[in-house]
Amino acid sequence: MARMKFLCDAERCIECNGCVTACKNENEVPWGVNRRRVVTINDGVVGAEKSISVACMHCSDAPCMAVCPVDCFYRTDEGVVLHDKDLCIGCGYCFYACPFGAPQFPQAGAFGLRGKMDKCTFCAGGPEKDLSKEEFAKYGSNRLAQGKLPACAEMCSTKALLGGDGDVIADIYRQRVFKRGKGSEVWGWGTAYGKPDQPKAAPAGAKS
Amino acid sequence: MTTARRLMLASAAVLLAVGLSACGERDQVTVYKQGKYQGKPDTKPWENDPAMNPYPGSKWDKGDKTGWERAVKARNLAQNEYSRVE
């Protein structure tokens, strides 16, 4: 098995926030903490509005792991980045390091006391006994231990959000792009880092 | 010294020892090693017994990594609606 990954198809996402709701419900995430959220650009502009669902992307070379001063992060055999809340000191370094704003910090009290970091676990729980009450209380649901995939991806109504083995979801996405003849332009180097001023016309389905 | 007095002294000594044992201090300083995970070990998802699952989902034998991967892949492929409608 390759690494577990998320992929959100911006051509399909309809900003329904169903993934956000599913995550909240599945993991009983407290008020103020959003493990997943939907980001929309060009909101209200006809034809130019695009949305994607964002959470922890379980990076292969995760910056949060690199900056953590107490080394509370670990990566599972399936490539899921998790952390031990018993070790976390809530310093917030991981939040500054993460390019997706995935780490969340529950706040309470008059001065907004910052708690231990909370983030998407790919519905894989954490370092407690699998499917135990302790694991659920600290990290939320462990669907991988039940042979399931993250709730957000499995319930996505338009199947915009794909989650699972990176190779498998890449194949699903590739098949979509071939079927509809477009879509690859929403991902890739050109989209992330800009395109030349006068780009050559790319063949349909080619990577940008 | 009477037997009752000895017994009282012995029980007082035991109570004192039990009481003081709560005042002990355990090591609260974690020795961190740079770049190495310092937390508790985690179990593998395939090491669970699917029969014990309160919400039964996929099926595999406990400890069977290949079986678990097969089960997860089946659910993964269910996200491709093209394969379901064709």
Protein model, in words:
The complex is a heterodimer of chains A (208) and B (86). Chain A is α+β, with helices and mostly antiparallel strands. Chain A has a single domain (4-193), classed as Alpha-Beta Plaits (2-Layer Sandwich). Chain A has helices at residues 18-27, 63-67, 93-97, 133-139, 151-155, 166-180, 189-193, and strands at 4-8, 37-41, 50-54, 73-75, 81-83, 107-108, 113-114, 161-165. In chain A, the strands form four sheets. In chain A, strands 1-8 form a two-stranded antiparallel ribbon. Chain A has a two-stranded antiparallel sheet with strand order 2-3. In chain A, strands 4-5 form a two-stranded antiparallel sheet. The radius of gyration of chain A is 18 Å and the shape is globular. The model of chain B has no long low-confidence stretch (mean pLDDT 84). Chain B has helices at residues 3-21, 65-77, 82-85. The longest helix of chain B has 19 residues, at 3-21. The radius of gyration of chain B is 29 Å and the shape is elongated. At the A-B interface, strand 8 and helix 6 of A face helix 2 of B.
Structural key phrases:
heterodimer; A: 208 residues; alpha+beta; Alpha-Beta Plaits; two-stranded antiparallel sheet; 14% strand; B: 86 residues; mainly alpha; 42% helix
